[in-house]
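Subject: Protein record for review, amino acid sequence with backbone structure tokens
Concerning: The relation between a protein's sequence and the shape of its backbone.
How to read it: Take the token row as a discrete description of the fold.
Enclosed: The protein record, placed directly beneath this head.
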Amino acid sequence: MLALEPHTGMLETPHRDLQDRALGAYLGLALGDALGATTEFMTPREIQLRYGVHREICGGGWLRLARGKVTDDTEMTLALGRSVLRMDGVVAADIAEAFSDWMRSKPVDIGNTVRRGIVHYRHTGELEVAPDEFNAGNGACMRCLPIALLHCHGQDADLLQSSRAQAHITHNNAVADAATETVLRMVVCALHGETPSVIREQADRLVKRYPQFNFTGRRVENPSGWIVETLQAVFQSLFEKQTFEDTLVEVVNRGGDADTTGAIAGMLAGAVYGIDAIPSRWLKALDRNVDVACRKQTLALLDLACRHSGRDR
């Protein structure tokens, strides 16, 4: 069980505490992405035979990444964050353009649902794809962190509206919406130092509403891009392990869509444990440009959140 209580002591103020957790979330997302990219689409058995236990950021994988490089999970998150900062809030038309520009840059990887959604926007100018009950992918959830940072002092209704504005550009599915919104609420709770039981309560509410998300049964191995399997694997790792490193190592060694399970687990565990809990060897291995972009965006989004809420930093 997750057994971490809120940070105290070394942190100077509540604002500093939130900042450290927010930095942990953003860098955690990128590190989970980079760590998981190596084992993406592998089975647990294949991972074991090749790496024993995969716990170092070394690149490779099916994308043949250089050490410390990231995939679409981090890149789309940064694209969303840039739009939010540019527009001083969530503007779906600008987010769609940001995603389109990102796809035009020829990213190293892009999911089929994301590609179809961006192409739909380019051809029609529409900011939502049609609802699709069979398309509950994890692509909107993986990139949602800027929404949590923007609304960390705000109202739940605003968080949900912003979540759906960015999600529906590529993913319009009630189950995927509920999952993404749960992750956002969990991140916000963690940013404010809520206890593990409060964070767990959000996941339990999702299961009560959609029982297919139940994560207390069988261990999910080789999780697919289906949001249900993604979050089952993430929640199992998050609530079973007691450190940032152990959470990420556990989830990416399940294989499957490991860059995305790693990214989502990384944003959640980073928010729970804070930046000081992230292994220094991982931070040193992360691509320098990605590291700088994540840190700058985090601080800028927190500033924007304070301005929107009328709070002082």
User: Anything to note?
Assistant: Residues 14-37 form the longest helix (24 residues). The two ends are 33 Å apart (CA to CA).
